[in-house]
Amino acid sequence: MRGHAERLTRLATRLAAAVGLGEQEIETIRLGALLHDVGKIGIPDSVLLKPAALTAEERSLMRAHTEIGDHLLEPLELLAAVRPIVRHHHERWDGLGYPDGLEGEAIPLDQLLTRRPRDRRAAPGRGRPALPGAEGAARAAWAPREGRSVSRPYRCLVADDHPALVAAVSDFLESHGFEVVGRARDGVAAVADIKETRPDIALVDYRMPHLSGVDLLQQIREVAPDTLIAVYTADSDRSIVGSVFDAGAHALILKDAPLADLAQALKAISSGQRYVDPALAPIVLNGASSKPALTPRETEVLAHVADGLSHEEIGSRLSISPETVRTHVRKACVRLNARTRTHAVATALRLGLFQ
User: Fold this and answer.
1) Does one domain contain both 131 and 161?
2) What are phi and psi of 157, to 5 degrees?
3) What is the reported pTM?
């Protein structure tokens, strides 16, 4: 992002001064903020500048920029104090950051001051000693969600009226670091269990017997206002998107998405973000009552991709160059929040964009 390093440098140095750091420490932080992403020169442009979402392999490659930057600065003795900032600026208070998974007080204050605002936590956890003045405010901005210890897994309740799905999802979550504290088969039971167990996350089907939809979400909010709500549904009806989030949900995930996406969604909302299934994201961006704004040509090209034609074959059929075809596909991927052209086709089919 243009100007990002400069803006971050201004913010970091102001915070450093506010917490009373000395002149030399402030200079170290200034240099660290300017150079924090220097390792991205070792990331291929095809990944660094990719307009669509990154694949898991590409995200792993992107994460390597912290270690690349540290390695680049290693021979420069004058920048020895800057290296920890470059290496650790993506660490997180709960230990789920990278590259070294530092946790809590193990992250030095200078790394905290160069963290990006999007990584902040909502509030400091209970039981942590208060820090005085601006330093306490700076650390509090990155503290874990209130009431949760950084050392224990997130506690989840799974509610769905299909027992086999509940069992499969629960087993998957437990194998990926979550603790399943309850399983319910209807809306009334879900609310009762949530009230009793107070899970960190409630993963609930939108349509269940006895109590469902907006009424279910509102009752969960009433009995457990601190519980994060993730709606897990087979219903891709455009009309539910706005109502789900208006009723207090933090995530909306379709059941036909890979289970890995489910885990990613729950981790995202646990760190203070909101998650929308990629297939539904265009609805959120363009309004719940309208379809994603693909141009007629983009829709036409994507339809031919769905028929299995190559870029060259599509270009010949439409009297345009293969490079122009690639451009239309790339733009369609961006509009549909798709990682690949296959993903874009699947999303378009799911949303009924092909006539």
Assistant:
1) no
2) -115, 135
3) 0.43
